[in-house]
Amino acid sequence: MFNNLVFAANLPSFGIFPPILAYGAVALLYYLVSRNWPGKSPTRQARVIQWMWLTAAVILLGMAFARQFQWGEQIANWGRQMARDQGWYKERRLYQAAAILVLGGGGVAWAAVLVWWLTRRVGRQALALIPLALLLIYSVIRACSLHHVDALLSKPLLNFSLNFWIEVTLLGWMGCVALSQLLIHRGK
Fold it and tell me: Is the pTM of this model over 0.85?
């Protein structure tokens, strides 16, 4: 029964792909945290924290549009066509594997440096960016992934695809972080 909720064709969604609603909801929560951050003492640290949350909300909104308009699939099709046009289509899997390793490794290194840098400036608030960084890395790898990666992610797990569980877990984690911040700072 619930498996049908994953497919946009089975929902009266007005052309909106269901994960977009989750991305949008979390983006809204992140925006609300940025707007409701304690502003009675406009210190430099408080402004950095507000910008951090607002930037995360904008990134999530961009990811929602990317999912809605299937930009990852369009990038993959463009790359496939470029490989055909330039004569390296048969070797494309090697290039895809190299891109995944470079982007995945670079993304993890970038996320670690970003969280370390922000932790020195805003304390534990920077830890709220970990699930966003993981979601960004995951999305980039999916955009340039091998067929085998997509096949693995489409495998069912408890009646849903592994891809569904990864996205829902990361978005849920992000939503919980944002809700906890709203509840902690609602009276301040």
Answer: no
